[in-house]
Sequence to fold (381 residues):
Amino acid sequence: MKEELLQLSAQHGTPLFVLDHNKIRENYRTFKKHLPRVQCYYAVKANPIQQIIETLFSEGSSFDVASYNEFMQVYQYIRHFERKEKKYFVWDKLIFSNTIKERTALIKTKQYKPLVTYDNAAELKKIKQYCDTAGLVLRVKVPDTGSQVEMSSKFGVEPGEAQNLIQEAFDMGLRVEGISFHVGSQCINFDNYTAALAITSEIFHEARRKGFSLNLLDIGGGFPVPYDSQVPQFEKLVHILNYEFERLFPNDIEILAEPGRFIVATAATLVTEIIGKARREGKMFYHINDGVYHTFSGVVYDHWIPNFSAFKQGDLEICAVVGPTCDSFDKIILAVELPGNLEVGDYLYTENIGAYSTASTTKFNGFDGAKIVHTNLTTSF
Ligand SMILES: Cc1ncc(COP(=O)(O)O)c(C=O)c1O
Fold:
């Protein structure tokens, strides 16, 4: 792998974001294999690069989108299904899972009869007014303790309020199809999933008892990536999930999930170049040509702790790695083991950087950010 990275960097320059589509396929297939009852709606927000969508579309994936633009990024591939039953294909391939949608997004997606989430009464009114063709999924607040990125402080109705919001939707002539939750991103505490399934199954059965024929469960994202050896195994999680699906939910419902990180994080490696070095209060600072305003934006938005490796060997010491901008905030990591003898022009590489990285990069200070190269790209749309 190192050889290939060096070769690609010589060819394309750095910073270089090397995206391996075989790995994306492998992650998707692993997900499907272990969760046979679950349809995978890749969360485009994790990395919206168009070729990722194409690779996953070819694999049979569906997609979770957060905005009208993301909706159209995917919709273009199902446009040609229009003459068949359009609603079926839109729902089958897309869920608009941002519980708060702009009015313009609702107006523009109305014609596609989208499947959308909601978690409050004001959103229901908006959906009724601007997009009453939609199918609804109620997002419920669930525990997200210990997850890298918490969700429940911003999204989800309190479980005790769920029946009212379901009732309210039906009273307005809207149709609630099911229930969703998100246990927080990079969820390493699997009790969150167990609790979430228990909470949603109760709401589900109660709603059915009242005559509302819910038929969909959306278990969101959160599936953890093995960034380090502390992360519990995916296999352990799927065992819990499959068992709880059987135990808590009827067989006739559809189950879907919205994995983002799990599909793309391990598929990318970033190669950066040391553009400056200085010993500051005894510690070696390597200044590299990418930083927190660019591909390492996940350090800020995703609470991610990146890893660094050098191509060259040398005596290891605790170093800092910082970005190229003039902002002192642009520090990627202040304590990482690297050889202390690296020189300007040497390269570093960072693995598992495929999720929440290029997705939130900026052009701050005039830096363009990493060039993206694709390996094992086989689709042609
Ligand atoms: C509604 C929703 N679904 C899915 C995801 C993807 O989560 P993850 O990357 O943890 O799988 C997110 C992440 O923010 C989200 O907000």
